Amino acid sequence: MRVVIARFPFDLTKSEVEHSMSSHTPEPVTGVGVTIDGRVYPVMQVGEVVTRQNRRDFTALEMRRALTRLGFTCHDASPVTPPQAARADEDILGW
């Protein structure tokens, strides 16, 4: 399927993306994530690997659209509670 990322057309298939990512360890997801073969990757990491472009050259939205069109499930990362804030909540709630 032809997708456009950072104004460049790419002919990608779902199996090619899966194969490309199989040799990469997922980085921590802080924004938009995508599930590939049961592992969750940041969409920016996937974009960098499959396009061989710098992450500054494209957006998470472009990658999310392209990966969704290829049949992957994209999702927002759950918010991370800073350790100090978690301890403060425990003190207030008496946990």
Shape: globular
Secondary-structure element string: EEHEEHHEH
- Radius of gyration, whole Å: 17 Å
Low-confidence parts, pLDDT < 50 over ≥5 residues?
none
Which strand order spans the largest sheet, edge to edge or round the barrel? Answer: 4-3-5
- The number of E-state strands comes to 5
Query: Total number of helical segments?
Result: 4
The tally of structural domains comes to 1
Estimated helix fraction: 40-55%
For this structure, the quaternary state is single chain
Biggest sheet, open or closed, and with what strands and sense? 3 strands, antiparallel
Give short descriptive properties of this protein.
globular; alpha+beta; 4 helices; 5 strands; two-stranded antiparallel ribbon; 95 residues; 22% strand
Question: Please, could you describe this protein's structure?
Answer:
The protein is an alpha+beta fold and 95 residues long. The chain has one domain (2-93). It is 40% helix and 22% strand. It contains four helices and five strands; from the N terminus they run E-E-H-E-E-H-H-E-H. It has helices spanning 14-21, 43-51, 60-69, 83-93, and strands spanning 2-5, 8-11, 32-36, 39-42, 73-76. Strands 4-3-5 form a three-stranded antiparallel β-sheet. A two-stranded antiparallel ribbon has the order 1-2. The protein is globular. The model has no long low-confidence stretch (mean pLDDT 87).
